[in-house]
Write the C-alpha cells for this entry.
Amino acid sequence: MNALNIGGSGNHRDILKFNSKEGRWYHRSGEEENEIETPTMAMDLRNTATGWLLFLEGTAPNRRWDTSINVLSPKPSDAHKRGFMVLCYSTKYFDGVAELSSCSMHLSNAFRDLHAEFLDQCGQHIDQLPVVSCIETTAMKGKFGTNHKPTFKIVDWTDRPEDLPDESPADPSEVWSGVGSPQPRPQREPEKQAAQPAATAKPASALF
C-alpha cells in the first residue's frame, strides 16, 4: 500500500459529514440530516478512493476518481481540488454504512495522517479494519476565517462487518478512464514490523 496524495455520485448511500466551520459531525440519510455525537467507527481504509472533487451549492458533487491510489488522474478543471472518499460503519453513531468524502484542506490533512497510521499498523492486522475515533478538533485560523481540523486515532481493529462490502467505494462512472498522461504519485512505504497475532475482534457494538 502507498501513501495518499490528496490535496455527483449515482449511489444513494448515507452520508457522514464533518462541518469544518462548526467543528461538528452530521449524518444524512435521504433528505434528512442530523447532528451526531463525535463518532467512533470502523473505517474501510483498505479501499480508500482518491481523486478530484468539486462541490458547488445546489448541485451534486462532480468527482473524478483515480484508478488507484498509486496513480494521480488528470485535473478536470482549475476549480477541482484533491480529495478522498472512504466508507465508514457504525450502528451506535449512525445507521450502518455511510460515506465520508471531502476535499476540505483540514479534513484531508487529518485523513492523510490517519492513513499513514493505518499503513504503519495494517501489517499486524491482516484482513481487519481499523476502528477510528475522532479524539479532538482544533480551531485553525486562516484567511477564510476559523475552520476546525479533526484529529483521528486508531483505537482498535475489527473484522469486516457483513454489511460493509470489500470493494472500492467509487462509482465506476466517476473513475478516470485512463485517457491522458497521469502524474506518478509519490509513494510512502509502511514501516516494517514483526508479524504479530491479529487482535481478537470485539463485537461490532462494543465501540461503534
Observations:
- The chain has one domain: 14-184.
- Residues 66 and 176 are 6 Å apart (CA to CA).
- Residues 180-201 have pLDDT under 50 and may be disordered.
- The longest strand covers residues 128-142.
